[in-house]
Description:
The chain has a single domain (29-206), classed as Trefoil (Acidic Fibroblast Growth Factor, subunit A) (Trefoil), CATH 2.80.10. It is 10% helix and 30% strand. By secondary structure, the protein is mostly beta strands. The longest helix has 14 residues, at 2-15. The protein is globular and about 70 Å long. The chain starts with a helix and ends with a strand. Bound molecules: 2-acetamido-2-deoxy-beta-D-glucopyranose (2 copies). Residues 63-65, 73, 84, 108-109, 111, 113 line the site of one 2-acetamido-2-deoxy-beta-D-glucopyranose.
Amino acid sequence: xxxxxLAFLLLIVLSSxxxxxxxxxxxxxxxxxxxxxxxxxxxxxxxxxxxxxxCKSPEGLGLSSNIDQPCPLDIIVVSxxxxxxxxxxxxxxKKGIIRVSSxxxxxxxxxxxxxxxxxxxxxxxxNVSKEKSLIITDxxxxxxxxxxxxxWFKIEKYVEGYKFVYCPSVCSxxxxxxxxxxxxxxxxxxxxxxxxxxPYQVKFVKA
Length: 207
Ligand SMILES: *[C@@H]1O[C@H](CO)[C@@H](O)[C@H](O)[C@H]1NC(C)=O
Ligand SMILES: *[C@@H]1O[C@H](CO)[C@@H](O)[C@H](O)[C@H]1NC(C)=O
C-alpha cells in the first residue's frame, strides 16, 4: 500500500515537471472590457462595483479637493459618467502590456488645480498595519525602493473582473502587508479608496 502511494506521489511529481517549467512564463495579461490587452501609458476609465452584487451601474473614479487641505487632490468614487481616466506605468518601462501581479504606478492626467502635486496614486500611510490607509495622490513614478514603497500597486483577477491590491514586490528589504483596495467613507461622507478587506471589483474601459 505504502509503495503504491509512493509511486503515485512520484508520478505526480514527475508529471508536474512540465508545469513547473511553464510557470516561469509571464503572468496573464489584464484585459479591458472589450477583451483587449491593457497597455501602459494608455488612458482607461475604471468601472468600480462591489463584488457579487451583479452591479449594473458601476461607478468611476475622480479627483476632489478637500477644504481643509486643497492639495494634493483626493481620489474619490464618482458616477461613471464623471469618471476621470487613469493610466499605468510599469516597473519595467520597456514593457508595454499590463499583466496581473505586476508592480505598477497608477495616475490621473495632471490637474491644474494642484500644479505642484502629482496625480500619482500613493498610500497616505506606509505602515499598513497601523490604521486605515487611504489612497491619495502626490506619489511619484518609478524609483523602486523603500522611499517609493507606498506608490506601487498591482492588478489581480477577482470575481468577474479584477481588483487593485497593495502588495509591492519592488523592495526586498521593505516589510509590508498585502491588502486589497476598496471603499472607505471618510468623516465628511466622501467615498474614498483605501486598503480594506473587501475589494472593489474593477474593470477597465479604454478612454
Ligand atoms: C481636476 O481636479 C478637480 C478637483 O479639484 C476635478 O473636479 C476635475 O475634474 C479635475 N480635472 C481633470 C482634467 O482631471
Ligand atoms: C507598523 O505599525 C505596527 C503597529 O503599530 C508596529 O507594530 C510595527 O512595528 C510598525 N512597522 C513599521 C515598519 O514601522
